[in-house]
TrEMBL record, chain B:
GO molecular-function terms, A-Z: branched-chain amino acid transmembrane transporter activity
Localization, UniProt: Cell membrane
Transmembrane feature ranges: 17-34, 40-59, 71-89, 95-116, 128-150, 177-195, 226-251, 263-292, 299-326, 338-358
Name recorded for this polypeptide: ABC-type branched-chain amino acid transport system, permease component
Gene Ontology CC terms: plasma membrane
Topology of the protein relative to the lipid bilayer: Multi-pass membrane protein
PANTHER family on file: ABC TRANSPORTER ATP-BINDING PROTEIN, HIGH-AFFINITY BRANCHED-CHAIN AMINO ACID TRANSPORT SYSTEM PERMEASE
Cited InterPro entries: ABC_transp_permease, LivM-like
Keyword terms, alphabetized: Cell membrane, Membrane, Transmembrane, Transmembrane helix
UniProtKB/TrEMBL annotation, chain C:
Biological source species: Serpentinimonas maccroryi
Record's keyword annotation contains Transmembrane helix: yes
Annotated protein name in UniProt: Branched-chain amino acid ABC-type transport system, permease component
Cellular compartment(s): Cell membrane
GO BP annotation list: amino acid transport
Automatic annotation (TrEMBL), chain D:
Presence of keyword Amino-acid biosynthesis: no
Keyword line: Amino-acid transport, ATP-binding, Cell membrane, Membrane, Nucleotide-binding, Transport
Family the entry assigns: Belongs to the ABC transporter superfamily.
Every ABC transporter domain range: 2-231
Molecular-function annotations in GO: ATP binding; ATP hydrolysis activity; branched-chain amino acid transmembrane transporter activity
InterPro entries membership: AAA+_ATPase (IPR003593), ABC_transporter-like_ATP-bd (IPR003439), ABC_transporter-like_CS (IPR017871), BCAA_Transport_ATP-bd_LivF (IPR052156), P-loop_NTPase (IPR027417)
GO aspect biological process, one term: L-amino acid transport
Protein known as: ABC-type branched-chain amino acid transport systems, ATPase component
Organism of this sequence: Serpentinimonas maccroryi
From TrEMBL, chain E:
Organism ancestry: Bacteria, Pseudomonadati, Pseudomonadota, Betaproteobacteria, Burkholderiales
Residue ranges occupied by any ABC transporter domain in the UniProt entry: 9-250
SUPFAM superfamilies linked to this entry: P-loop containing nucleoside triphosphate hydrolases
UniProt KW Transmembrane keyword: no
Highest taxon in the source lineage: Bacteria
Pfam families associated with the record: ABC_tran, BCA_ABC_TP_C
Protein name: ABC-type branched-chain amino acid transport systems, ATPase component
Gene3D superfamilies listed in its UniProt record: P-loop containing nucleotide triphosphate hydrolases (3.40.50.300)
Single GO term (MF): ATP hydrolysis activity
Keyword terms of this UniProt record: ATP-binding, Cell membrane, Membrane, Nucleotide-binding, Transport
Length: 392, 432, 341, 231, 256
């Protein structure tokens, strides 16, 4: 396999309101494909990334996927929108059963709906992000120790991921902090809302002291901007405060009030820090989708183990694979193909010596509040995976 | 009297048989000529687009009803067909049942046209256009809000293979789906053509031209519009149902305003004044969306420009252009124009290529600088940092534009002269 | 209470933005009979140009310049394209504007990219116009600008709701526009000339009026208004390529609901739709909860059903179109329209 | 005042007028007669610049061929088309208002003059013109053109669809115009009135003028009448 | 209806108001089957309005309209047409983008029972084609069979207008100024044509051309300011001083 070229299709929005996120991820993929190619990975393969714009639409995604497969690409990556990820899983299952010998593998970099590795789990799907339940587990563990939080408002995007955030927030808060009152809950359309002022007015009227939201991209940017404009002073617990555009929207007005729960953060130090600085140098943008590094690491190790770049062999090799990545040793759990990894809770504040990385030149950063080890945030799975026979 | 009738009818019918057989033959043999999976998928999509555009034209071209929400009927047809496909799978029906899915889509389209058409067709003209726009947006937004039926942004997907192959057919392989669609396409086109030759198909023309007078010859224009609307909805639904089988997934854009707009745009490009115009439109639609968009990122810009120029200079669409030249040919005058056409073609090509190069380079600067400075264009490599390339492109564009304009002027004079002659000729024939 | 006021103001300011857009559309429609499908595209051009021009000469100069530029573009389009298809009738006219909307969208993306640009209002407008202080005892206070921090929670006792200055500015400009448009239409003969020319252009010319020039001016004025709305809307909300499409449909709703060609109708409908949509977001009533409140017994299973849990706030985006369909059924000429076009 | 020489006119490609030639003097009523389709209306349109022309049209010493209609109108020629072309959605009064040319201060005709002439219009002053009866519309068009204060008025079939009594009124009205030194080019079907009120009669046939003399001479000339006016 | 043979068309106290202005002020008129009636009156008297009321273009403000013994006021135009009343328009009102043949064919379809069908081919409807061919012949439009209506000359359009009106075989025919805009000689030809095609039908026409009126009508109704001031034979009407004063005028009327 040494010297072979492995082509990965990245199918994500590259236009529209969520375009900035997809474009950032495409650049991240290309950046790290360069870094990890050849000697950069144990298998010695060359990674090549092809971007497809799915306009955040499931059917466009499948059309793009067909095109990619038609061009001989066998590794598909996507992550923006769990709904679409679900559609890909089904399409991949279908394709692989109808076209033996042309199997493709789905590398999910960010779609975090827990169902994808539970009720809808598939052998061909690998998730490198931490799913919603894991993140909420960690987040609520933190909230348990914060007595000032009494009234919580849930605002989320009206689709798979948003539903899950709301669901797990209610479930886990009820379990860990039964005294907390959910004073309001809203689901708004995904990537459609341009004016969040009415929602913010509602949040303020509810008297909430904290907001939990799984929003990302423009849906978070505009929400926080509207909240700042309207003078909202409560805390935000988010999943994606670091994504393109959001740091600027947070600005100094949100200092100390915005939290992010994720599997990475701005000030990881070490090799990661040099990469991030270099990335910013090159693209004038911040690298935040750390799972891309996981993916390339995992592929390299798996291809070496399988001695092949064949998708089926690589899939088998990845299932249950333990490998090292930027946050230490991680494991692709065999039972459901959910990566087990540590999580980090960070808070928005001014940069200082320990927290030097400032996204979008805001002079602010996300500073580590607490690290959760993989086992703390790990959640059980109900996946009953159908495994094809391993090739000989 | 009877003798003339005989002679009038006979040759036309022969021609008609010939055309329809040719059409069937093309549908049958096309996948043998273009046999890549992309090509077959495109041809299947063309069948769908043709039916959708034709059904759209039942409203616009034949009925004078400008609909901004035609995708609703095709799209809801797709959704219902998709749910039906899911049910079929669950119910364990035999494979041939899949062949009926498009029909289910058709009935869904009919049903929704019956439902919404009742209010939309009360009015004609601008009010009609606006209600269809409203209903279209309503359904589009509803499709993003109601999850059970529309499946949210993930859409609804189903497996078209519902069981073991039946006579070797499982509808899994693309080619089998293509032939299913081809059969439907042929039947639907034939039916839609036949419809134009029926009393209702003619009265709707009268309603288009002068709804007021229609009332005074005994017809209720609202009823006429409503009936036609339902028939159009039915065919749109069939197109939608076929899409369900072909794509196995449906998301909300199929009922959205952009899709409705494309039907309008391409039906118009093809030409709404002739029956076959939208067929051309449907084929172009797929070419544009699938192939054009592969070739260039700027395809929407080209499309918009082509469209605007078509409306300005050839409002009859491509079908109109064809028929105009056919008329010339019938009077034996087409030959005179070849030099002009050649001049026009050559200068237009030069203009197109140079403009294309410019647009491509600008697009590249905008979108792809991270991927290097060189744009591949028609086998050339254009370096966006090289000023000479820019200068050359601009120069070629300007000169070819000037030459084109010269050619166009002489052409339009020539054209006008020929038309005058033909008018005279017709007058002469009429009087003799 | 302060929630009600703020929501009302939010609704009105959004409504007034809609009005800025629809007034231009109404102007063009009522005078030229052209349903300008590219109207919202000119709005978008206004926003992007505002973004570009304000980087050179500053926001305030851009606010003056951009409407002129956009109006000029509109006039040029009228002169070189729309005028040529006028003779084919209204459908082709609509079609060219439809085609134009594609071209504009692509050109904008060509120049400014496919993702949103950072078009922020100037310092002066970034603050807040006033603050509503709602005290725990239920009384309501008011302060211009931003209320002192110590009055507000968590330092003080009051919940402070700020009203952004951009929105207040939108309201002011829209009202100004309403008045000047109204003057233009009622105090000049241009309106008459154009309406007459719609029917019999040759006759109007034979009576001594230069019809093409008037058409061009009207189209320019209408698109200029869209450009102005673009600068304001783009800086207040988001400047991105989809802004035309999302607002475009609503603007048509406004114009039709108000009554095609009626300025007053457009004004009324804009406010109605703005306020309606804002309040719908605020209402958490669902079908299920309403039925329960009405004393209908629902099983737990039924209550969990999607339809029963469907809240009005989710229906918010549907409302304008529902309104459109209802109005067209029961009042085909719109709220204040009287003519059958 | 108006001199037309060797005028050719075209509708797109069809050649309608073939070298028309005639003159209209100040304060003169000239009747332009001819069969259906002989090209009389086209002559009127040619003068107004509403069709493509070749040849010379001279108005008060100025060549006006190829000018835009509104320019011709501003030079003082008024036109009442046979198709009436009232503006249906505007009121009677607004229709009249549109007849007034922009940038003119004094006007020899006022609204009241018009209403005095046709009281019926006064009654319908604020009605939408589109619902007027056929005859009322005819009156309106006439008045509308007069509001523009023309020195020459070209009237195409003014009596069509009018009740006999009103026809008399129109005839009388045209004579008042003459009294005010307004020239009239009257295109008519009804020989009786045309010959009664006009100073000169032109007969048109197949796109050219075949007769140009006094009405009395026309009455005499049986050949012309048989060949070019009757069927 | 007590009488054995009801009137072809009968108006009882019909009034029509537009806003505040009353245009038709209580018209009573009864036309027996087979009669030819001309309606004359000054411009704006309400003649066309009367036709509009009878044909269902709008409903009367008060009063009743009966057609062959059935009440029709308030019914939509198409319903009245199906009951056997057909009208032409003062301003030509055709299907401009259809050929002469198609114009007539559309007008024939309903009366031959083909209604909204889309399950039969037009080309197979022998009876329709036969009838249309007969009409073409009747209207002297055979040569223009396949010409689009919008490309016809004015006189031909007027002829087609009448052809479309009578195509459905309605027993009551209303013609609104059928000869307006025609030269004298053409008018003559046209009167003969009308006479021919409405043979045996009830005919109401509105006319200003006294030649036509006296040449065509059995009876003349005079409408002035929305009121019927006379309804009698041509001679009686001509002699009626009120009519002369209100409508005919002096010299010119005599000339006709
Ligand atoms: N818009 C047009 N396009 C083409 N031909 C036309 C047009 N208008 C008129 N014509 C033709 O031009 C010729 C002269 O028409 P014109 O209207 O000048 O006649 P006219 O003497 O006024 O007759 P009428 O009594 O019918 O008004 C006719 O043969 C007519 O068919
Ligand atoms: N829809 C309407 N609204 C208001 N007034 C109307 C309407 N229709 C007709 N009228 C008025 O009714 C009067 C009678 O009109 P009508 O057309 O019946 O006259 P007419 O007798 O046919 O005259 P003419 O011989 O001039 O055609 C006119 O004064 C007209 O203005
Ligand atoms: C990229 C991410 C923000 C995507 C999101 N977490 C989802 O699952 O839909
Ligand atoms: Mg004429
Ligand atoms: Mg009348």
């Amino acid at each position: 396999q040494r010297g072979e070229t492995v082509r990965i299709a990245l199918i994500d929005p590259q236009s529209g309101l969520m375009g900035p996120v997809g474009i950032n991820q495409l650049r991240s993929f290309q950046f790290f494909a360069e870094k990890f190619s050849g000697a950069g990975n144990p298998a010695g393969v060359r990674f090549e990334i092809e971007g497809f714009d799915n306009k955040l639409s499931a059917s466009e995604t499948l059309t793009a996927m067909q095109a990619a497969i038609g061009r001989g690409i066998r590794f598909i990556s996507q992550g923006n929108s769990s709904g679409i990820a679900g559609a890909i899983i089904e399409a991949v299952n279908r394709h692989n059963s109808r076209n033996p010998g042309q199997e493709v593998v789905f590398l999910n970099h960010s779609a975090v709906d827990p169902d994808l590795t539970n009720s809808r789990c598939s052998f061909w799907h690998f998730r490198f992000d931490a799913d919603t339940s894991m993140k909420m587990e960690a987040l609520t563990t933190f909230i348990r120790g914060e007595p000032t939080i009494r009234r919580v408002f849930l605002i989320n995007q009206n689709y798979a991921h948003g539903h899950q955030v709301a669901r797990f927030a209610k479930e886990m808060l009820a379990r860990k902090r039964p005294d907390i009152q959910i004073v309001g809950e809203d689901l708004h359309p995904l990537a459609q809302v341009r004016d969040f002022a009415p929602y913010v007015a509602k949040i303020m009227a509810s008297g909430a002291d904290s907001v939990i939201t799984g929003n990302w991209g423009s849906d978070l940017t505009l929400l926080i901007r509207a909240a700042n404009d309207a003078g909202y002073r409560g805390r935000f617990f988010t999943y994606y405060a670091g994504v393109t555009g959001t740091p600027t929207a947070l600005g100094t007005a949100s200092e100390g009030r915005v939290y992010q729960i994720a599997y990475n953060h701005y000030n990881m130090g070490g090799q990661m820090q040099t990469w991030m600085n270099e990335f910013r140098q090159r693209f004038n943008d911040d690298f935040y989708t750390g799972s891309i590094i996981h993916i390339l690491n995992a592929l390299g190790v798996a291809m070496q183990n399988a001695r092949s770049t064949n998708a089926v062999r690589v899939a088998h090799a990845m299932s249950g694979l333990r490998f090292n990545s930027f946050s230490g040793p991680v494991e692709m759990r065999r039972a459901d193909h959910q990566l087990q990894q540590p999580l980090f809770l960070t808070r928005w504040q001014r940069v200082d010596a320990q927290h030097p990385y400032s996204p979008e030149n805001t002079g602010m950063t996300l500073a580590l509040v607490r690290r959760f080890d993989a086992y703390v945030a790990s959640t059980p799975t109900s996946c009953a995976m159908q495994r094809p026979a391993a090739p000989v | 009297m009877t003798a003339t009738k005989y002679y009038q009818f006979r040759p036309i019918n022969v021609g008609r048989w010939f055309i329809w057989s040719l059409f069937a033959l093309v549908l049958l043999l096309a996948p043998l000529v273009f046999d890549s999976s992309i090509a077959i998928s495109m041809m299947a999509q063309m069948g769908i687009a043709i039916i959708a555009c034709l059904s759209f034209n039942m409203l616009l071209g034949q009925g004078g009803m400008l609909s901004f929400g035609h995708a609703v009927y095709a799209g809801l047809g797709t959704y219902v067909a998709m749910h039906a496909l899911l049910l079929l799978g669950d119910a364990g029906l035999p494979v041939p049942a899949v062949a009926l899915i498009p029909l289910i889509g058709g009935f869904a389209g009919l049903f929704f046209a019956l439902l919404f058409g009742y209010v939309t067709t009360k009015k004609a003209g601008t009010a009609f256009a606006m209600i269809t726009l409203g209903v279209g947006e309503l359904i589009f937004i509803a499709s993003m809000v109601f999850f059970i039926f529309f499946g949210g942004e993930a859409g609804v997907s189903a497996d078209r293979v519902i069981g073991e192959p039946f006579w070797g057919i499982s509808f899994g392989p693309l080619i089998e789906v293509y032939y299913l669609i081809a059969v439907y396409t042929f039947l639907c086109v034939a039916l839609m053509f036949a419809y134009t030759r029926t009393p209702l198909g003619r009265i709707i023309n009268a309603v288009r031209d002068n709804p007021e007078r229609v009332e005074f010859i005994g017809y209720d224009p609202q009823t006429v519009r409503y009936l036609v609307f339902m028939i159009a909805g039915f065919f749109a639904g069939i197109a939608g149902g076929m899409a369900a089988v072909l794509f196995e997934i449906v998301t909300s854009e199929v009922v959205g305003p952009i899709r409705s707009g494309s039907y309008l745009l391409f039906a118009f490009l093809g030409g709404v004044t002739f029956f076959f115009g939208p067929i051309i439109g449907g084929i172009l639609m797929v070419l544009a969306f699938v192939m054009f968009s592969e070739i260039t990122k700027a395809w929407m810009l080209y499309l918009g420009l082509i469209f605007v120029f078509m409306v300005m200079y050839a409002p009859g669409g491509i079908a109109g252009l064809i028929m105009m030249n056919l008329r010339l040919a019938m009077f034996g005058r087409l030959g005179e124009l070849w030099a002009s056409y050649l001049g026009l073609g050559a200068t237009a090509l030069a203009l197109l290529v140079s403009m294309g190069a410019l647009i491509e380079m600008i697009y590249h600067l905008q979108l792809g600088t991270a991927m290097g400075d060189v744009v591949p264009f028609l086998g050339m490599s254009l370096n966006t940092l090289d000023l000479d390339v820019w200068f050359g492109a601009v120069f070629v564009a300007l000169t070819s534009f000037g030459l084109f304009e010269l050619c166009r002027r002489s052409f339009s004079q020539q054209w006008a002269a020929i038309q005058t002659d033909i008018e005279k000729e017709i007058k002469r024939r009429e009087t003799t | 209470m302060e929630f009600f006021i703020i929501s009302l103001l939010n609704g009105i300011s959004f409504g007034l933005l809609l009005f800025m857009l629809s007034s231009g559309l109404t102007l063009i429609f009522s005078m030229m009979g052209v349903l300008n499908f590219a109207h919202a595209s000119f709005y978008m051009v206004g926003a992007y140009m505002g973004f570009a021009v304000s980087q050179i000469v500053g926001f305030w100069a851009a606010l003056l310049l951009v409407p002129l530029l956009v109006g000029l573009l509109g006039a040029l389009f009228e002169k070189y394209s729309l005028r040529k298809v006028h003779k084919y009738g209204h459908v082709p006219e609509l079609m060219v504007t439809f085609g134009l909307s594609y071209i504009i969208l692509e050109l904008v993306q060509l120049i400014w990219g496919r993702i949103a640009v950072e078009f922020r209002p100037p310092e002066l407008l970034q603050g807040s116009a006033f603050t509503l202080l709602s005290q725990p005892d239920g009384s309501l206070g008011f302060a211009w600008g931003r209320a002192a921090l110590e009055q507000c929670q968590p330092l003080g006792t009051a919940i402070c709701s700020l009203f952004p200055a951009t929105r207040a500015f939108i309201m002011g400009v829209a009202l100004l526009m309403l008045v000047s448009l109204w003057l233009l239409i009622t105090r000049t003969r241009v309106g008459l000339v154009i309406q007459a020319a719609l029917k019999h252009p040759e006759m109007v010319e034979a009576l001594g009026h230069n019809v093409p020039r008037v058409f061009m001016l009207v189209f320019g004025a209408g698109t200029g208004l869209a450009g102005l709305a673009g600068v304001m809307g783009g800086s207040t909300f988001v400047t991105e390529p989809a802004m035309a499409l999302t607002l475009g449909a609503i603007v048509f709703v406004v114009v039709v609901v108000g009554g095609l060609g009626s300025l007053a109708g457009a004004f009324l409908a804009s406010l109605l739709i703005g306020v309606m949509q804002t309040f719908a977001v605020a209402i958490d009533q669902s079908l299920g909860s309403m039925l329960l409140a009405m004393g209908v017994a629902l099983s737990a299973e039924a209550q969990a059903h999607e339809l029963m849990r469907f809240t009005l706030s989710k229906a918010a985006p549907l409302l304008p179109f529902l309104l459109l369909v209802l109005v067209l059924i029961f009042r085909p000429h719109g709220l204040l329209g009287n003519r059958d076009h | 005042m108006l001199e037309i020489d060797n005028l050719h006119a075209f509708y797109g490609k069809s050649h309608i007028l073939h070298g028309v030639q005639f003159k209209v003097a100040p304060g003169e009523i000239v009747a332009l007669l001819g069969r259906n389709g002989s090209g009389r209306s086209t002559t009127a349109k040619a003068i107004m610049g509403l069709v493509d022309t070749e040849g010379s049209i001279v108005w008060k010493g100025q060549r006006i061929g190829g000018r835009k209609p509104y320019e011709v109108a501003h030079l003082g020629i008024g036109y009442v088309p046979e198709s009436r072309d009232i503006f249906p959605k505007l009121t009677v009064q607004q229709n009249l208002l549109l007849g007034v040319k922009s940038g003119r201060s004094k006007n020899s005709w006022s609204f009241d003059d018009m209403y005095a002439m046709f009281p019926r219009l006064k009654e319908r002053e604020h009605t939408e013109a589109g619902v007027l009866s056929g005859g009322e519309q005819q009156m309106l068009t006439l008045c509308r053109t007069l509001m523009g204060d023309p020195e020459l008025i070209i009237i195409d079939e003014p009596t069509e669809g009018l009740a006999p009594k009103i026809v008399e009124q129109v005839a009388a009205f045209l004579q008042t115009l003459k009294a005010r030194r307004v020239s009239v080019l009257l295109i008519e079907q009804k020989l009786t009135i045309a010959l009664q009120i006009s100073d000169r009669a032109l007969v048109m046939g197949h796109g050219s003028i075949v007769f140009d003399d006094t009405p009395a001479a026309l009455q005499e000339n049986r050949y012309i009448r048989r060949e070019w006016l009757e069927v | 209806m007590s009488s054995a043979a009801p009137y072809a068309i009968e108006l009882k106290g019909v009034c029509k108001r537009f806003g505040k202005t009353e245009i038709i002020r209580g018209v009573d008129l009864a036309v027996a089957a087979g009669e030819r009636v001309a309606i004359i009156g000054p411009n704006g008297a309400g003649k066309s309005t009367l036709f509009n009321l009878m044909s269902g273009r709008f409903g009367p403000s008060s009063g009743e309209i009966w057609l062959n013994g059935q009440r029709i006021d308030g019914k939509p135009a198409y319903a009245i047409n199906r009951m056997g009343l057909s009208r032409s328009f003062q301003i030509t009102n055709l299907f401009p983008k259809l050929s002469v043949f198609e114009n007539l064919r559309c007008a024939v379809l309903w009366s031959l029972g083909y209604r909204y069908t889309f399950l039969k081919f037009l080309a197979d409807l022998e009876d329709v084609i036969e009838r249309v061919d007969a009409l073409l012949h009747l209207m002297r439009l055979e040569k223009k069979r396949d010409t689009l209506a919008m490309n016809l000359s004015y006189a031909e359009q007027r002829a087609l207008e009448i052809g479309v009106t009578i195509a459905g075989g309605a027993g009551v025919v209303l013609l609104d100024e059928p000869t307006a805009g025609m030269s004298k000689s053409e008018t003559k030809r046209f009167i003969d044509l009308i006479r021919e095609v409405t043979e045996g039908k009830t005919l109401l026409t509105v006319e200003h051309d006294m030649g036509v009126v006296f040449g065509l009508a059995d009876k003349i109704a005079v409408l002035v300011y929305g009121e019927l001031i006379a309804f009698d034979t041509p001679e009686a009407v001509r002699a009626n001083p009120r009519v002369q004063e209100a409508y005919l005028g002096s010299v010119l009327a005599a000339a006709h």
